[in-house]
Amino acid sequence: MAEEFQKWVLMVTAQTPTNIAVIKYWGKRDENLILAINDSISLTLDPTHLCTTTTVAVSPAFNQDRMWLNGKEISLSGGRYQNCLREIRARASDVEDKNRGIKIAKKDWENLHVHIASYNNFPTAAGLASSAAGFACLVYSLAKLMNVQEDNGKLSAIARQGSGSACRSLYGGFVKWVMGKEENGSDSIAVPLVDEKHWDELVIIISVVCSRQKETSSTSGMRETVETSALIEHRAKEVVPKRIIQMEEAIQKRDFATFTRLTCADSNQFHAVCLDTSPPIFYMNDTSHRIISCVEKWNRSEATPQVAYTFDAGPNAVLIARNRTSAALLLQRLLFYFPPNSETDLNSYVIGDKSILKDVG
Ligand code: DP6
């Protein structure tokens, strides 16, 4: 390669928000392709608060694929990264930057290496779905860099192979991950239900109970649940399919009472199957349980519920208030019951739900 050609670097930066499931994905039927045992529905969060920013670069000067996460180099040898890189490379097309005289032909991508730098603006692996934002952003930015001509649905099936929940971060608003039937996973994709404007009075508050890395990762936790829980099959086959239908309807109608009932019940059932796993998995702690009691009591004392709660694979609460007034009251209550500088001091972030993938450069 001519020396001139060796000098260039082509870069793309993208930002992707995380998503929070209101009907949870828990359990795989195929570990390699990451195929779920049930459909799930999530809400994509506002990217200004909880998001991953990823810059991907390609240059003939790079002699291997490399990645840095929050400034620290990580290995790309794992199957999940390799699957995403392979799938994106296979769909790369010609790229031309006329101003700089750079031309990459489709076939060149096989021999070019990428460098990836990714930052989360929230605690990694503390049950705040960092892998969801991370893999969605990785796939999206690589697809932009390599001029992949696929829609977000197809990209979601690639992001899914990085982390199941990542497929839902390719869209804003409420998103459903359809588990699909095909063995090769081609129909296991994310589909947008309603965009971020549909129900924009909702306010999301994340209460960080603990920002430490969780002890049992979602991946190994759900594997153990599928292998040992007697309840998981009932959940996946009987309970979730009905809830998915009801949840879709509640979202379409902006029916907050039904939305809250389903969201809280599904979070509680997910943690119940974790408890039914051998050995049992405890993602929530005493503070999480106190938050649940506080919200349940408040909802029952009102004519209609004010707040839905949901907890992923960690102790942190995601609280969804019906509107700004309820959100303000909720924050007051949280400050009262969990005072600052006390043992159970919560760090609560208010987050909207206007979320969309963003190219920032
Ligand atoms: C509790 O998507 O992190 O957040 O597919 O193994 O990477 P892998 O798991 P991951 O699991 C998320 C589980 C959850 C529920 C959800 O987001 O639906």
UniProtKB/TrEMBL annotation:
Domain Mvd1 C-terminal residues, every copy: 204-361
Catalytically driven reaction(s): (R)-5-diphosphomevalonate + ATP = isopentenyl diphosphate + ADP + phosphate + CO2
InterPro entries given in the database record: GHMP_kinase_C_sf (IPR036554), Mev_decarb (IPR005935), Mev_diP_decarb (IPR029765), MVD-like_N (IPR053859), Mvd1_C (IPR041431), Ribosomal_Su5_D2-typ_SF (IPR020568), Ribsml_uS5_D2-typ_fold_subgr (IPR014721)
EC code: 4.1.1.33
Class of the enzyme per the UniProt entry, highest EC level: lyase
Keyword line: ATP-binding, Lipid biosynthesis, Lipid metabolism, Lyase, Nucleotide-binding, Steroid biosynthesis, Steroid metabolism, Sterol biosynthesis, Sterol metabolism
Key word Chaperone present: no
Keyword Cytoplasm among record annotations: no
A Pfam family this chain is assigned to: MVD-like_N
Location of the Diphosphomevalonate decarboxylase-like N-terminal domain: 17-190
Cited function: Performs the first committed step in the biosynthesis of isoprene-containing compounds such as sterols and terpenoids.
Entry-linked NCBIfam families: mevDPdecarb
Family membership noted in the UniProt record: Belongs to the diphosphomevalonate decarboxylase family.
Protein name: Diphosphomevalonate decarboxylase
